Amino acid sequence: MNIKNFEFKAKVSELEEYENKLLTLNPKFQGTDHQIDTYFNTELGRLKLREGNIENSLINYDRENISGSKESTIILYQHEPNVALKNILKRQLGVKVIVDKKRKIYFIDNIKFHFDLVENLGTFLEVEAIDSKDEFTIEELQE
Fold first, then answer.
1. How many CB atoms lie within 10 A of CB 96?
2. Can you give the CATH number for the domain in which 96 is found?
3. From 66, 74, 82, 91, which residue has the greatest number of CB atoms within 10 Å?
4. Is the model's pLDDT at 137 over the cut of 90?
5. pTM value?
6. Are strands 46-51 and 95-108 parallel, antiparallel or unpaired?
7. 28: pLDDT confidence band, cut at 50, 70 and 90?
8. What is the Cα 7 distance to its own chain's centre?
9. Beta-bridge partner residues of 36
10. Do 118 and 11 meet the contact criterion of CB atoms below 8 Å apart?
């Protein structure tokens, strides 16, 4: 599945405060996911394997390495958990880094909100405007 999105991430100290503000907008709660993201060595873009109790996918994405809001072009392969996939990728590409996080996931229409507690890094808020059906321009997603 090809996806484009516009996103931002921010390290925040008062994660609960931002979550409470979002709750006033009646978002759809997807659940709390414990995610292990394994990033692999690649020559182009980024490749990560996400293993969670809600989301499991192999994600290839291109995104500028800049702070602030940014566009991403994503190829997403959703799969059932299987250790063989991870072992093949580790053997062929090598592991760049592993990120372990607990993530609360909410949606309002095509906007996804993450409230993350990342092991050894702290708490983060991430907002993604997602277009999986080629319905929006990048400017509309940015807005």
1. 13
2. 2.40.320.10
3. 74
4. no
5. 0.89
6. unpaired
7. very high
8. 9
9. 51, 100
10. no
45, two tokens: 């873009």
Please give the residue range of the domain that contains residue 63.
2-142
Around 46, how many Cα atoms within 13 Å sit in the side-chain half-sphere? Answer: 18
Domain count of the chain? 1
> What's the gap between Cα 81 and its chain centre?
17
Structure tokens at 80: 């059932």
Q: State the DSSP code for 64.
A: -
Q: pLDDT category, 140, cuts 50, 70, 90?
A: confident
Q: Say how many CA atoms lie within 13 Å of 96 toward its Cβ.
A: 13
Distances in Å between the Cα of 103 and the Cα atoms of 41, 55, 92, 111, 118 are 24, 11, 29, 16, 8
Instruction: Enter the DSSP assignment of 25.
Output: T
